[in-house]
Design a protein that fits this description.
The complex is a heterodimer. By secondary structure, chain A is mainly α. Chain A is about 75% helix and about 0% strand. Chain A is built from 11 helices and no strands. Classes of the chains: A mainly alpha, B mainly alpha.
Chain lengths: ~260, ~220
């Protein structure tokens, strides 16, 4: 056994080794089915609780059930932006290829979550507020978050040199991060139509226990979905960018396609 | 510091030699704001109500028009690369370019605003508030815009892309700028709006030159 081999066997997983696209690619491939299975599991239990177990809301009737999609999607849209910006920042500072690819892979997932949050919000707003859309601080800042995702994707797509695209995108992602606390605190800072947070770490939840469980399970489901889709996207990006590398040509799936 | 003034002097001299581009952006500002009364009707109370938003949005858009000029021509003829290679700090050079852009594109808006405001039947204090918000807000537009201008240097459809990248970041300035004028017109206190605008301005002034300088370096790498 070589010296490098013994070194890497000292630990259970060598995290630094994973930062190389060639080692990350097969690991991600093995993880994706696990995360899809978890998505299905949490989704099934979460939807069952949210549709059949959770009680009807005293004020909002059955219509409130849309929060089981709306709230997790909104959380994920903000959280994914932070994760994306952190990956982009890591890529900018340490010049690692994989972290920039991660940021690029997460942007469409985050944009989809922001869109889902706005769309379900509109479905909720029509019966509750009587309007599909109001120019409320939280709604507007969430819309801007969607625009930030789209701007990041547009900037990356329009720069041909991938190194420059990564760096330029990273700067934009880091500048845009100022919007995340604005969305999060918007219901506190402005006296707006959108209701305050239903779940807080510091005080007891203001909702029924089963509702909370439904929402948390759905949040876990969205979390797993985002990881699964993010990994699938990053694998595609790796293949695209590393197409010239030998290890890609040796992959079984590539050999099959090339016949 | 001398680099800062040298860049400002150079950029202003370039503008003075080719006035048409700058005048186009200002003319755009005047035309857009003058079109609104034609489009929505000449009702004085309605005009007074929409004036802050209309004037501010027009200011945002006319700032965007001039943004590509901040780095693009220097990038095309290679002088930006020369500046980056010089021993002068890139942050100072970028700060000079931002300041020159504000003098050319922002300051005239502040001076023109009262004339536009009179068209919209704003009273005297509203005009003062409008000028005050523009004086605090337009430097932020130039600062934030420089990030977009630097990121899209030499990029396909760059000038169109800038609007997608930068307009979302402009929204706080628009909200508090137009909000102050509106608050004043309905008799509310405007000091909160001014404090927030000032905070945004200081924050942008503290960070943006560094961000833009690194964006320029990425572009010419």
């Amino acid at each position: 056994m070589t010296e490098i081999g013994t070194f890497s066997n000292n630990r259970l997983i060598n995290w630094f080794k994973l930062s190389s696209p060639s080692t990350f690619y097969p690991v991600a491939g093995k993880l994706i089915p696990i995360f899809w299975a978890l998505t299905a599991l949490f989704g099934a239990i979460g939807l069952w609780i949210s549709f059949f177990v959770a009680p009807v809301d005293a004020v909002q009737g059955q219509g409130y059930r849309i929060i089981f999609i709306h709230v997790p999607a909104s959380w994920m849209s903000m959280f994914i932006y932070i994760v994306m910006a952190v990956w982009a920042g890591v890529g900018l500072i340490f010049n690692t290829r994989l972290s920039a690819m991660m940021a690029q892979a997460l942007a469409p997932v985050g944009a989809w979550m922001a869109f889902l949050s706005l769309w379900t919000g509109a479905f909720w707003g029509k019966p509750m507020w009587g309007a599909w859309w109001v120019w409320d601080a939280r709604l507007t800042s969430e819309l801007i978050l969607l625009f930030l995702y789209l701007g990041f994707m547009a900037l990356q797509a329009s720069i041909d040199n991938p190194r420059r695209a990564d760096k330029a995108g990273a700067i934009l992602a880091l500048v845009g991060i100022v919007n995340v606390p604005i969305i999060y605190f918007s219901v506190k800072w402005w006296n707006t139509l959108h209701q305050g947070a239903s779940v807080s770490l510091t005080k007891a939840p203001a909702m029924a226990q089963t509702m909370l469980w439904g929402m948390l399970l759905m949040a876990l489901c969205f979390w797993m979905y985002s990881i699964a889709v993010g990994l699938m996207r990053v694998r595609t990006i790796i293949l695209e960018r590393e197409a010239h590398a030998d290890w890609v040509k040796r992959l079984e799936e590539i050999k099959e396609v090339n016949g | 510091m001398s680099a800062l003034f040298a860049v400002i002097h150079r950029d202003l001299l370039l503008v003075a030699r080719r006035k048409s581009e700058v005048l186009t952006a200002l003319f755009f500002f005047v035309v857009v704001t003058s079109l609104f009364p034609l489009g929505i009707g000449a009702d004085a109370t309605l005009l007074r109500k929409v004036a802050p938003g209309v004037i501010w949005v027009a200011a945002l858009l006319s700032t965007l028009l001039g943004l590509h000029r901040m780095f693009a021509t220097d990038y095309a003829d290679g002088s930006l690369e020369q500046m980056a290679l010089s021993p002068q700090s890139m942050v100072m050079i970028v700060a000079g370019k931002i300041l020159a852009h504000w003098i050319v594109c922002g300051l005239p808006l502040v001076i023109l605003a009262p004339i536009i405001g009179i068209q919209f039947d704003l009273d005297r204090t509203s005009l003062y508030v409008l000028m005050g918000t523009l004086l605090l807000g337009t430097p932020v537009l130039s600062l934030l815009g420089s990030i977009g201008a630097a990121l899209t240097l030499g990029v396909r459809g760059g000038s169109l892309l800038v609007s997608l990248l930068i307009l979302p970041l402009y929204t706080p300035v628009l909200i508090f700028g137009a909000g102050a004028v509106y608050a004043n017109s309905v008799g509310l206190d405007t000091s909160g709006h001014f404090s927030l605008l000032g905070a945004i301005f200081i924050l942008a002034l503290a960070f943006v030159p560094w961000v833009s300088a690194s964006a320029v370096k990425i572009a010419i790498e």
